[in-house]
């Protein structure tokens, strides 16, 4: 397949300053008339052909300046329209008519129908499935859109910008006209037409402009959209206060649809959402759902400035909008909730998704240089590592200069399509800093490793810290350059406070940050009166793997006393991880797992430490996941041994701390009415972690059954169901709870997804058969991405013992299912296939089974570009 290369970028010969679209909407046969004002760029000869992108289109008619074009003067195929020569005038008008069948569009890209509602998804290259166009992000156009549809089935007609006209047509049809004054790339175009309910509100911007807000959902679900509306208004205010960014249209609309390939889409003035990230109430949504809704509503809204007003020059620059917008939504959530808890959750996500990507065959830089299919680059690296890079710029510059750099970026590039270099230059200019070495974070793939060790010399009153960096090779980047890594740190004294020092040499040490730039630094801190315990990479200031030589006593000391809450969590997490790795090795060697006494006793201490918030305590008590331990072990992985080690530790802590945990679990059941705020959610999270331990400690389903039966909110109920299904899969109580849940939520697909997920993640070799069986359930459908992700996606990505079943059946099942999905929805299939990416880290037999399953996919006939790209890179 064709490879797109960053170095081949060149501006287009033609621009399209104005786009006028008329849609005659019909679910089986929609007519699209596009009137494009085309402009030849200065210096481009008139005999340069105009080449427009298409994807699966049929051209019905073509006019240039209102006149038909001779057949010999153009060529129209499904994927492009070539106008061999254009009129001599610099500007001319092109009128194109195409037809599409939205109800047959199962790829969910371009114009499609979801639950009877017409909607669009144009990022990255979906607009070319609607009409021929210069479908690239650096071609910005002002859109006027006229929608015509049947009034009864589609009373609501929405597009980008502001509404300008509407009225009746013949045969029960009607129309609406929308005008978006802000020039935008085609990937931000959207329309929605259907019959939906709504919640309405208003927002007055800082400068006093009134904005009409609406969130559209299926009739009857309006009450479940009020939390999303609240999150939207909080996001709008926050962006004004933190970044000085105001909204810029008269209306802001959000529409929730039930068939959607990703989380949501930031189309200008008309965000389209996966309904999973809009709909919530206490009975049907967990605290995690509420937090996700808040974050994704904010994320899409923040794109209005970082993505829409300033967009990407080309798709290699995707992190320019995505990494930056993730950083902004992380900061928003940190301000709305507990900053430390949010940071811990971010780091868990980064390690769970981005680290394996960066350490495997699909590794790529935050700003890639090559792609075969852009849809496969909406990755954890572009999004999450991209956000970490922005966070590091803030660490390097400090809050004020970071804000000045952002202000300059908004002022200088408003209305433009720009690059990462343009972005970084703004920060260099406001600070005078040279960010050339730092910019490698954008250009070089791979997770840097840091090793560190400290020595104290009492006589010289010196503490010496040796730090070394290395970046492992990644596909097509064997040799790596040295990175600029900002490590926040503290030298913690015996009283738990940070020690001061008289100076340091061997590296730049400023404002609590060590700037690692060389392969090795030997840093001497002077004037240190007693041995400190070093706390390194505080707040996870750099996305690296760190092996810091330290005794278990020192780690426990930091877990108890570090003044950085993230690092306290990290110290304990490292102790758990080290103990679990050792236990895994013992189990593989045929021995019993054994754990240090202090590690079994400390959880009771931290669980009842009221100086810490409940949400934080819940995070501290949550053991590393099986995938975390697998990643740390790194090679010849046996998921069954890891599972046994974690179960053993959970059980040991659960029985050792049973008294404290039992009392606390009881006390946290306060009977308060549900509110989704962070403090109440924290109490529920802590209660659920305790339930997990208590059940493991007692070895009986009693606690979980009681919590399930008395739960008055979904957070408590889903957690109890998970404990039952995962710890007691064969008990009658579990069968009964599953049946009750299914019965109660039969008519609510988003809630039934939780039921699918809990069963898909039930550990053990019979998971494959269970998942196969559930595919026949009446509520399951391979055509709906949420259903597929809930059942197949969670099985493959979050059920280590099930998916990696020793006989390879999990891999064969995934290969066969991916091929079935691929026929309709290649994007979804490609995302599922990513579950194979760490196959080379497995023990030999599993590796062989995984390779065979991957080969089955790659040998299939007529593979989509999406799936072929993932499978070939995974096998390479
Ligand atoms: N910018 C949006 C990306 C997106 C997308 C990409 C490919 C295919 C379907 C898609 N739906 C949404 C989402 C975001 O990051 O905000
Ligand atoms: Zn985004």
Automatic annotation (TrEMBL):
Residues 227-438 form the Peptidase M1 membrane alanine aminopeptidase domain. One of its GO terms (molecular function) is alanyl aminopeptidase activity. Belongs to the peptidase M1 family. Residues 553-876 form the Peptidase M1 alanyl aminopeptidase C-terminal domain. It catalyses: Release of an N-terminal amino acid, Xaa-|-Yaa- from a peptide, amide or arylamide. Xaa is preferably Ala, but may be most amino acids including Pro (slow action). When a terminal hydrophobic residue is followed by a prolyl residue, the two may be released as an intact Xaa-Pro dipeptide. It comes from the Bacteria. Residues 20-188 form the Aminopeptidase N-like N-terminal domain. Residues 446-547 form the Peptidase M1 alanyl aminopeptidase Ig-like fold domain. Its cofactor is Zn(2+). NCBIfam families: pepN_proteo. This is Aminopeptidase N.
